[in-house]
Please model this.
Amino acid sequence: MNTHRTITFLGIGSVAILVPLLWVAGTQDPKSTPAKAAEAKAMPAKITGATLTPAADLKWSPMDGLAGAEQSPLWGDPTKEAHGIFYKWPAGTKVPLHTHTFGDRGVVISGTMTLAVEGAPPKKLPPGSYFSLAGGTQHATGCEEGAPCVFFIQREGKFDAVMVDAGAKK
Model:
């Protein structure tokens, strides 16, 4: 009989302890841990309202470190966080082997881009082409002669370019 009371007491005691612990765990902000906070920062902001921007209304500015190239941020701050951005590169632009800390996805709007990934020969990407590169992927990028390239990028975090040969950030 004592064994039955002991087991019942342990069972009730366990429930009395576990229920409040599980309740507290369920009410904690999942972004409160440093890992979750970093993950949340890398995620694009929630879409609210509506944004309609005709191509003629895009705000273009020079792209630092790449002569003649321009950029037009759409959302997010490229110097601080995940963002979407248009780039416009002159025909004949070539960027040597480099990486980015954060991954990106892109679509070529006009012109023909070239991407040489991880030592493979360059692949030509005409308008309508899609590409994605994980952060840290070595690649060389270019815009073929004949027409400027306009392309859209959605990046998982802030922009950086780490040149592979020089090891310097641009």
The chain has two helices and eleven strands. The helical segments are 2-27, 34-42. The first helix runs from residue 2 to 27.
